[in-house]
Each structure stands twice: as C-alpha cells, then as structure tokens.
Prior knowledge:
- By secondary structure, the chain is of the alpha/beta class.
- The strands form 7 sheets. A 6-stranded mixed beta sheet has the order 13-12-11-14-16-15, with helices on both faces. It has a 6-stranded mixed beta sheet with strand order 26-25-17-18-19-27, with helices on both faces. It has a 5-stranded mixed beta sheet with strand order 4-3-7-5-6, covered by helices on one side.
- It is globular.
- The model is unreliable at about 70-85 (pLDDT under 50).
Amino acid sequence: MSKSDKKIDPAEYQKRLDRMTEMFSDMVSHAEAVSLFRCPYRDRHDLCTAEFICRNQVDGEDGQTCGHDGQFDYRSAWESQPKSRDRAKRKIAAIKEEAVSRRADDEGAEAPARGLISHDGETHPSQFGMTIFDFADELEVEVATSCQRMGNCHECVVEIRQGAEALAPRTDAESFLRGDYRLACQAAIARDDVDIDFVPLRRRPRILTTGRETPEMGLAPLVERRDSQVFYDGEPIDRDRGGIRGLAIDLGTTTVVMELIDLETGESIATGSFENPQRFGGSDVMNRISYDGLETSGDELQQAVVGVINQEIREMARRLEFPRQTIYEIVVAGNSTMRDILFGLDVQSIGQKPYKSLIENDFLSGNRRNTALLERAWDVGLRANRQARLYSLPLIASHVGADTAACLAALDFADTDKTVMLVDMGTNTEVVLRHDGQMYAASCPAGPAFEGGLVKFGMPAYDGAIESLTLTDDGIDYHTIGDAPAEGLCGSGLIDLLAELRRHERLTAKGVFADDRKRFEIALVPDRGITFSKEDASNLAQAKAANYCGQFIVLRTAGVNAADIDTLYLAGGFANYIAARNAIDIGLLAPVPEDRIAKVGNAALDGARTILLSRDKRDALQEIVKDIQHIELETTPDFFDLFVEGCQFKPMPAALEDGATKRNRSARRKRRAS
C-alpha cells in the first residue's frame, strides 16, 4: 500500500492538533507575560543577570537578586527623541498623501473629498489605513494603553460619535465591544471621505476629589516601617525602599477617584480622577452585570478598570518621581457590583433577587466573619509592590455597598445621638438614616438620567455643560462649566431647569408642557440647538422617583418626618453641585430645612482614606455594618403607588404617613363622594 493510500485517523489528527494549539497558546501567554511583566535581566530564580548597576538590585546569599515589581515598561522609549518621532510621523503622512494623489491622477479624476477626524472641536484630515489611535496622537488626545497598541490590553476604548461607517469592521480583539465603541488601536480608516468624531472613555470630567474638613485622628495603618523593613499587620513583607504609601480609591459606576497617601504622616500626596472606562458595558449597575454575564465578555470589565488604575499609578509615580514599589496597601470603596468586578468575582447574583453578592451570601451562611475583602493587589492585576494588599470595605446589604460604608466611616455615623440622614446620589443612590441608635439603609436604582444618560442633551459635567440656569422672559440665563459654549445640561442644570419650568408654570407636575399638552419639545438654547422634550422629562421623572421612594420609605420605616432630621448629609460629586432648594421643590430631596443640609463632597474617598490610616476604624466598621437594617424597597407593599407619586415634579410630603393610612383615607373619600 502506497503512502498516499494510508488514511489518517481523524481522532488522532484532532488530538495532535489540540496539543499543538495548547502548546502554542502556552507559548503566547508566556511571551506576553515576559514582555509585559518581567524584567528581561531576571532569571527564573529571581537573580539579576545584568552587567550594569540597577536600583532594584538587592544583595542576596546567592548574588544580586531582583527587587523590581516585575513590570517593564518600554513605552517611554520614544519620549527621549520626540523630534525624531514627529519627523517620522510627518514623513509617513506625506508618503500616504502622495500615494492618494498619485492614485487620483492615475484614474484621471480629481482627488476625492477628504473627511475630517475630530475630537472636542479639534480636527485633522482623514487618512486611509491609519487608526483612531494615530489621529489621537495627532490631536494630542490622551488615550490609555499598556500593550503597545497591539489590541491586547483593551484599555484604549473610544466612543465613535459620528462616522462609524468609515471604519473597517471590528477585529477579533474588539469582539467584546457593542454599539459605537471601538479600540482606538484597531479601528482603521476604511473610507477617508467621511467625517469621524470620537472621544476616549477615559475622559476627565469635573469630578469631586475632596470632602469636608475631617478632624485629626491618631495614625494606626496596618503598614509600618521599622528596622529597615516594611511590615503589614506585623508581618515583614519588604525591605525599606525609602517610604511607605497607600492608595484610597472611590470606584464609582461613572467616575473613579484615587488619592495617594503618605502612611507615616497621613498627608495626601496626590489625587487623580477620571471617567470609569467600563462604560462600554452599560451606563448603570444592572447593565454592567448583564454584560459581565455574557460568554463573550470574559473579564473585560475587570481588565478595563485594572488597566486604568495601573496607568494612573504609573503617571503618579513618574510625575512625583517615586517607585511604585513603595505603595503597600490599596483601599477601595465601591458599590457591591463595582467592587466585586474589580476583585474578579462573579456578580450575576447581585442582579437577581434577592440581589446579594456571593460574598454576602457566604457571610449570611456563616462562612465568613464579615463582607470585607482582602487580596494581594498583584493577584488582582494592580501593579504596586508585589506584596501590596488590596482591601475593600465591607458591604452593608445587596446594592448598598462598600462606598456607603465608607461614607459612614467618614461621617462617624455610629458615634452620634442625633437624627441624621445620608443621601449619596448617583446612578445608584444610597440612603442611610440613624435615629434613636438604630440605622436603616436602602438602595435606589436611579439610573443615569441625571448623569448624562437618557436625556437627548444631557451630559456629564464636562466643559460646556450647563450647570445652572434661570428662566427669563427672553429665554434662559445659564452658566456652563469652564465658561465654554453650551453643549448640553449636566445634572445640576437639569434640576434647575425642572424647578424653573414648574415655578413659571410652564411644566405640569406630570411632566407635560402647560401651554400645549401635545407639544413634544421646547427650545432652550436655540443658537446651540439645545432642546428639552417630554421624553426627557419622563426619563428624569423616573430617576427622580427612585430617589423619592428611597428617602420616603426609609423615613417612614423609622417613623421620622423630614423636620425631625438634625442633619441631612449630601454626598458625592453630583449632589455637591445641586441647588438644594430646587431639588426639594421637585421632590428629589426630602423637605429638610435648608440650614440643616450639609454637602460633604466625596465622603466615600474620605472614608477609604480613614480606613487606610486606622486599623481601629477598620475593625469597628466591619462590626457596625452588621447591625444596619436593610430595607428592600421593591418588597414594600405600596412601592408601586409611591413610585407613581414620586414621578410627579412636586415636593415630598413633610409628614410621612404609612401606606395603610393613606389608602384608608382615600377609600373614605371615595365612599363620601358616592
């Protein structure tokens, strides 16, 4: 029998193919790890083989060992010769331009109309074959990356606001993205006759990074330095590198704020803030949970936020000239979903009744002492010291997460005898009330309407956002962030608009335009094309109703009227900029006397800093949250009735009666009327 007549066993062939595929996959993974996370001069025994002197070399028994954190960053190599790089880019652009002209001449036709690539008003002529990242360089737009633009890190997500049809189809590296989102390094120009407008997902809106003035406290961090060594909770973890630092992080659904702290003095060294890059997975918690559950999503949400935190750490270290290895602890405050995604946990149970995380379920089953989390930061992917710890504050219950617990730590909620209430507004609003020694908490899924979503001309707090306004006979007087030309309205501007429309009787309580009930929209800033519609009002009404129900039900459960509250704390960047009177008038806030309302800024970040600096506060908070009574709003018998009532743009009742009393009174009225 000739060789050509021999048949190959399909099963054996597939077995060998699978083995080769596995070997190739291992090789690729190893190569990626070596190229990104390992110094090329460190051998497998962690010994240093370099012939030159390196500041990370440590004297060991067997020679010089490597004390580097393992990440080797080549990205700054070209920065030493920026002029050469610019010359090369200009030469490449000229070659492409010449090729386009030559092609047009060969075809005997005029050169085709050229499209423009734009970002934030800055434009550049489109070039066939170049990527969005190339144009980001030309327009001096900061886009995150840590994989040398190879499509591996998935940090360079951009939103294509116009001209998506001019881009080549998504590559395999972009398969996790939906809608108008692309990777800047992969999105290549396929048509250069169409205008394209893009914006990176790591933008820097106006984000509140400060809180209130907090009283001094004794420093007792878990990290300490003594005898030329660094200890974590009494365990030696590293040699002395010249300082011990920590990071406090407020990980929000919409924004992220980081603060670098000197653990020996308690002083703030630097802060950083940016938009949460996970927005490609949805604008609110429930959408993120759904996205994270897709088979194709992998761990993209975790990678996105880990990558952007690492980039901020690198930038801080480079700017302030300190080694990242001196960061020994990272404390994170975030809602249940954001926190667990960061730690790489499955969050699907948080999106289903009874809306509890895996960690909370373990705690309720008696398998955990508390709902706090502690891991090595390196294992999660955060590139600080190799032995640095990542700690998350405990959850309270369901969607009332570690960010709310952080606020309680910052405000010393457990140490007051007064009646106090916290309202932390955002895409998910948390309400906590302390009265007669008992604490009550609820979570309100408000959605993104007041943070730029679901409203046609709604936008986050970027330059150009109308942040305050009043109605006049001729239109509106308004002020924009950065005094830039008006582009839309951020949350505080939307609240002012609703209150002013109601005050001037131009909008009914049910969100209908008073002059013509069939009118769909009105012009706000005609010369900028900015309008406000009945649909916008409806979406804002539902977001407002969620906030209304949370405050109303918590107050009613505790038997407290708004006038009984000694202090109402407004936490978060959004709440910090609103006009309290206007928020009360439309029913967004409980009618607490204005002189009792205190804006406390970014209390979640303050709380994370407090926990970073005090083991006593940390231990106390882990116990305090266990005694908070969690109220599940959706299980309240008259929740639907309250939600419908809350959708109206009118103040919340000053006296809060229970649902049964209200229904009985309504029934008596109907009987009398009949």
